[in-house]
Amino acid sequence: MEMTDSLPGAAVREVKEETGLEVEITGLVGTYTDPRHVIAYSDGEVRRQFNVCFTARAVGGRLAISDESTELRFVPPGEIDRLPMHHTQRLRIRHFLERRERPYLG
Q1: What's the CATH architecture for 7-105?
Q2: Which residues contact 48 (CB under 8 A, 6 or more apart)?
Q3: In a designed cystine with 37, which of 49, 52, 54, 97 is the match (CB 3.0 to 4.6 A)?
Q4: How high is the mean pLDDT of the chain?
Q5: In a 10 Å sphere around its CB, with 0-12 CB exposed, 13-18 middle and 19+ buried, how is residue 89 labelled?
Q6: Domain regions of the chain by residue span
Q7: Taking the model in full, what pTM does it have?
């Protein structure tokens, strides 16, 4: 987040930077703070990850790889289980697909 960002504003900016898509935030899937989710980046930076996961809809732009992405594509829900990802990412996707009545707080 930038010092001048709101949470939804940061999400909109990050999606544009990382994917080329312009989005409008439509809701909240939840907050995720698993202390086991530690990320070590190739440049040596290590972080404990937390995530605020929003729902959004594309309103413009087009998919374009950036300095922060290596591959971009839309995936049908039936293919998600075959993709390699951290268990915390899988949990967020599962919560979105369940269309929960209330956001997850964890």
Answers
A1: Alpha-Beta Complex (3.90)
A2: 35, 37, 38
A3: 49
A4: 93
A5: middle
A6: 7-105
A7: 0.81
